[in-house]
């Protein structure tokens, strides 16, 4: 195996998949994991075998990849508004159970018109902005939008969903349990309001890796959609979502230069490690761009495209040619930088797997 390479410990992967499946089973909610983390139909099938009800993706192209490999229950948790994407979703809905999403009147009208023309009924969920200020209809405007949506032809409004992450009272937080409970309660309350207004909501879908367990405790929540839990990463460890030993993914890099005793250069830069989760951000205040396993004296301090600059604080026996293992800050966007991953079995053998959903951004 050449470097840089992304290596997944199969034993930890299996344990993480089972852990979340057990949480969903205990809380009596459906698990629909987001495959944005691994982008790999083989791993998605492991999640389904462990009890997941279906999967979540962000893009139509990702859904197409998963469907091509036999997965037949997929939620595209992203508003579809362009004709080409909607048509692709309609085509896919003829083959599998496909759930689509909207967060505006314009968006649901486009879905309705295209579905009616095609002679199909699209299953849809309405996205709610529960505090992240990303996509999603504003919470206080959701009932009005849902009333209008349910009257449109060609669509069947079955649920609501949100993604909030570790946000509490509008601010990032380390209190992920309370953040999850607040997320769940907001959505459960909204679902009751919608039903009272004659909108027959059945699916109430919530949860990130950090908030799924506590959100699922709220009565009325029917589904959780965590993603990062399959591998975990440095960010999730800092949010206390996992133990260090549960992190299943690490980037293997080779030391290619040692300009001084205080500086090493490795062969992985910003084309190997994602940089969207920057050091020093509240509330987790990460240092560097990943944790170098077994070397607390080292910090992956800076990245250029193909170079990683490692600051050395104190003595180290690492030399040019040595291979280091680094847990990245954010595994989801890191995986999307790699064509392949290597699954490491307990006997030490490696299985190369293509990241088939990589780059499927449309």
TrEMBL record:
SUPFAM superfamilies: PLP-binding barrel. GO terms for molecular function: D-serine ammonia-lyase activity. Residues 248-345 form the D-serine dehydratase-like domain. Gene3D superfamilies: Alanine racemase, D-serine dehydratase-like domain. InterPro entries: Ala_racemase_N, D-amino_acid_metab_enzyme, D-ser_dehydrat-like_dom, D-ser_dehydrat-like_sf, PLP-binding_barrel. Belongs to the DSD1 family. This is Amino acid aldolase. The lineage of its organism: Bacteria, Bacillati, Bacillota, Bacilli, Bacillales.
């Amino acid at each position: 195996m050449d470097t840089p390479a992304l290596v997944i410990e199969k034993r930890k992967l299996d344990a993480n998949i089972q852990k979340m499946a057990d949480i969903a089973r205990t809380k009596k909610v459906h698990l629909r994991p987001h495959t944005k983390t691994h982008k790999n139909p083989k791993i998605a099938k492991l999640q389904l075998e462990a009890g997941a009800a279906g999967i979540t993706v962000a893009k139509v192209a990702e859904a197409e990849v998963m469907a091509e490999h036999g997965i037949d229950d997929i939620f595209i948790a992203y508003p579809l508004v362009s004709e080409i994407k909607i048509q692709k979703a309609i085509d896919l809905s003829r083959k599998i159970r496909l759930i689509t999403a909207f967060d505006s009147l314009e968006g649901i009208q486009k879905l309705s018109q295209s579905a009616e023309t095609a002679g199909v009924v699209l299953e849809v969920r309405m996205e709610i902005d529960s505090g992240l200020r990303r996509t999603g209809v504003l919470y206080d405007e959701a009932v009005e939008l849902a009333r209008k949506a349910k009257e449109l032809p060609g669509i069947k409004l079955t649920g609501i969903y949100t993604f909030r992450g570790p946000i509490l009272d509008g601010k990032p937080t380390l209190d992920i349990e309370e953040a999850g409970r607040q997320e769940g309660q907001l959505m459960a309350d909204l679902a009751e309001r919608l039903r009272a207004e004659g909108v027959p909501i059945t699916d109430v879908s919530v949860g990130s890796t950090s908030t799924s367990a506590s959100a699922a405790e709220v009565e009325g929540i029917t589904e959780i959609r965590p993603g990062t839990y399959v591998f975990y990463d440095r960010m999730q460890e800092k949010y206390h979502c996992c133990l260090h030993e549960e992190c299943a993914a690490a980037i293997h890099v080779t030391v290619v230069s040692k300009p001084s005793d205080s500086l090493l250069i490795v062969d992985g830069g910003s084309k190997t490690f994602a940089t969207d989760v920057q050091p020093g951000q509240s509330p987790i205040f990460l240092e560097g761009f990943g944790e170098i396993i077994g070397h607390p004296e080292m910090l992956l301090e800076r990245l250029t495209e193909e170079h990683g600059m490692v600051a050395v604080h104190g003595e180290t026996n690492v030399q040019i040619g040595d291979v280091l293992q680094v847990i990245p800050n954010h595994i989801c966007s890191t995986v999307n930088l790699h064509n392949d991953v290597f699954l490491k079995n307990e006997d030490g053998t490696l299985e190369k797997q293509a990241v088939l959903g990589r780059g499927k951004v449309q």
